[in-house]
Design a protein that fits this description.
291 residues, alpha/beta, Ubiquitin-like (UB roll), Rossmann fold, 2 domains, 3-stranded mixed sheet, 25% strand
């Protein structure tokens, strides 16, 4: 029942009337489940941001993955680097590739080119193939395949031991596979002693010493043409130089650089005075002897 002229009415709730409830209050109420337009727009904005974030994350993930694939080494290709190479390395390519792949198996992270330690790779490859002096990534590379340029040691002297020809480069590194021409210096063994007797380190040490003497002497203007192992010794070397009369005696027990430093002023002194000795001995520090 409503009262005329009044603003109040009775509202029936659960079959009963309730006083003091205005008509305007009833008409302005909305169901609790109804969403306001403002709240709906806000909700859509949040959803768009989430979808956009997921899209950007996916996009950058694809870009990063693509970049990693362009830097990834799954296959190995090889090219030579020296124009002086006179033999093809095709016969040995598979052996070099196998060692490189073994290195990547030990260091999988270095399959990514920007993480590759080329010095460590070179050391590893040369430990199996001493003729290799440098391994580095070539400028031309393809996706998942990396092309490596491989450089080889150039011999400065050689020595034939029984049926094996050994070589040594300017750094004193001994190797047996030569991709260059015949070295300018061959070691003439007149010692009568088998260099393989006892330990193979003896011949390796000797060859390394010869390589250092030949290279250091050339740097000072003296070109070696012959290295002789005299009779009954493997610790002394007689080196003959181009346009130099006397042979120079060296000892493998003393540093090659020190002996070359003693040799140069001695040969200059002999040349300036027109002397013609048969040899110059620089084996003892501070005691250069010529006869």
């Amino acid at each position: 029942m409503a009262r005329i002229g009044g603003k109040r009415e009775h509202e029936q709730v659960d079959g009963q009337f309730r006083r003091n409830k205005t008509l305007s209050g009833v008409s302005s109420r909305r169901p609790q489940t109804e969403e306001s337009p403002r709240h709906h727009v806000h909700h859509l904005t949040i959803r768009r941001r989430k979808v956009g974030g997921v899209f950007l994350a996916s996009f950058f993930s694809v870009v990063v993955l693509g970049l990693l694939l362009t830097q990834f080494t799954a296959q190995v290709a090889l090219v030579g680097t020296s124009s002086q190479t006179v033999q093809s390395i095709d016969a040995q390519k598979d052996a070099y590739k196998e060692v490189i792949q073994t290195y990547f198996g030990i260091n999988p992270a270095e399959r990514l080119r920007f993480l590759l330690n080329e010095v460590a790779l070179t050391d590893y490859v040369s430990s199996f193939h001493p003729e290799v002096s440098r391994v580095e990534i070539s400028q031309s590379t393809a996706m998942i395949e990396t092309t490596f340029s491989i450089a080889f040691r150039e011999p400065v002297a050689g020595w034939r031991i029984r049926d094996t020809q050994s070589y040594v480069d300017s750094q004193g590194v001994v190797f047996s596979k030569n991709y260059f021409g015949t070295p300018p210096v061959q070691i003439v063994d007149q010692s009568g002693i088998n260099p393989e007797q006892g330990t193979p380190v003896a011949s390796t040490r000797l060859l390394g010493f010869v390589g250092r003497v030949v290279a250091l002497s050339k740097g000072r203007g003296y070109t070696a043409v012959e290295v002789i192992l005299p009779a009954d010794t493997t610790r002394r070397l007689d080196v003959k130089f181009k346009s130099v009369g006397p042979a120079v005696r060296f000892s493998v027990d003393r540093g090659a650089g020190e002996q070359v430093d003693d040799m140069v002023p001695s040969l200059q002194y002999i040349s300036e005075r027109g002397l013609k000795p048969s040899y110059v001995d620089v084996r003892v520090a501070g005691r250069t002897v010529y006869r």
